[in-house]
Amino acid sequence: MRYAVLITGPAGAGKSTFSSSFITHLSASKRTGHLVNLDPAADPARFEYEPVIDIKDLISLEDVMGELGYGPNGGLVYCFEYLLQNMDWLEEELGGYEDDYLIFDCPGRAGGDVYRQILIDFSPGQIELYTHHPFLPTLVQNLQRMGIRTCAVYLIESQFMEDKYKFFSGVLSAMSAMVNLEIPWINIMSKMDLVTRNADDPSGGARNGLRNRRNLARYLDPDPLLLATTQGEPEAPNPRFHALNQAIVQLIEDHPLVSFLPLDLTNSDSLETVISHIDYTMQYGEDEEPKEPHDLDEGDFQDLE
Ligand SMILES: Nc1nc2c(ncn2[C@@H]2O[C@H](COP(=O)(O)OP(=O)(O)OP(=O)(O)O)[C@@H](O)[C@H]2O)c(=O)[nH]1
Ligand SMILES: [Mg+2]
């Protein structure tokens, strides 16, 4: 059996960093993970592991922009359409790798590393890629056709919790991407080290407005009522959006599809927990007894509650 884990999420969420930590952690446990780069604009200098499969060997955004005159967004869509038309290339590249994890590092925004300098993180970033474009569903269908067991991980970064509107827009994007992809799915709140660090540093905590430290559980298991209260907010919300917010509250109450596993890469137990959830979701090693994911150590985030 081959296993594919698609690492998705908005721009800058920490997908590439998580992908390489994942590989490092697997190899420390005498297992093997291979990086598959799906970002046609990735800067090779930023890879900690050399990808075994690289979309840039098929097509690069630079060439598409240079030779076909596309801009970064159209160029990215072009690259993916080209990949979908060349599934035989991917299929050949994906030969072998029995019992290993293939970790697909997906791009978060058009241009990826190349445009990091130019495009500031506008929070959800190039999210249309996962919600509006049939790219991932088609890719997943192909992986399944090839007999590869596939799951998706969706990361949003902990800074999203500093702004509840940004946070809920992340929750809705996760939901939308999930319902588009009918495969096992894990949502992750990345960069939890920033929350922990700010919690230890009163000035940092205050600066970042992490009042929600106390509310952490209400973010990891999104409580739509956070949207319904305006207490402590500097500005009254625009009443025009009241009905919309109410509808979102109702939607999340009726369909509590999204909850987040916290990921703190500075804590190997946290990474281990996330990986054990991925193993469980994938039923990794189907001949063995399926393992229950080990629970988050109560102590891990206790100080944050
Ligand atoms: N503090 C902290 N920073 C992180 C963590 N993970 C990633 N970062 C930083 O966040 C930035 C973006 O990380 P990437 O891993 O490149 O994010 P990405 O999701 O692959 O970004 P795109 O591919 O451009 O969408 C980099 O500056 C990382 O150093 C983390 O766990 N903690
Ligand atoms: Mg990346």
What does this entry look like structurally?
It is a single chain. The protein is 43% helix and 12% strand. The chain is of the alpha/beta class and 305 residues long. The protein folds into 2 domains: 268 residues, Rossmann fold (3-Layer(aba) Sandwich), CATH 3.40.50.300; 34 residues, no CATH class. Strands 3-2-4-1-5-6-7 form a 7-stranded parallel sheet, with helices on both faces. The longest helix is centred in the middle third of the chain and has 17 residues. It is globular, with a radius of gyration of 20 Å. It starts with a strand and ends in a 23-residue tail after the last helix. About 8% of the residues have low confidence. It binds guanosine-5'-triphosphate and magnesium ion. The site of magnesium ion has 6 residues, from helix 1. Keywords: GTP-binding, Hydrolase, Nucleotide-binding. InterPro entries: Gpn, Gpn3, P-loop_NTPase. GO terms for molecular function: GTP binding; GTPase activity.
- Secondary-structure-based class equals alpha/beta
Strand arrangement, largest sheet?
A: 3-2-4-1-5-6-7
Instruction: Point out poorly predicted stretches.
Output: 110-127, 204-210
- Tertiary shape: globular
Mean pLDDT rating: 82
**Helix and strand run:** EHEEHHHEHHHEHEHHHHHEH
Task: Tell me the total number of β-strands.
Answer: 7
| N-end to C-end Cα span | 40 Å
Spatial extent as radius of gyration: 20 Å
Any ligands, ions or cofactors bound here, and which? guanosine-5'-triphosphate, magnesium ion
Main β sheet profile: 7 strands, parallel
- Percent range for β-strand residues: 5-15%
Kindly provide the name of the CATH class of the largest domain: Alpha Beta
- Annotated CATH homologous superfamily of the largest domain: P-loop containing nucleotide triphosphate hydrolases
Helix content: 40-55%
Count of the domains? 2
Q: Please tally the helical runs, counting DSSP H or I stretches of 4 or more residues.
A: 14
Per CATH, what is the topology of the largest domain? Answer: Rossmann fold
The CATH architecture name of the largest domain reads 3-Layer(aba) Sandwich
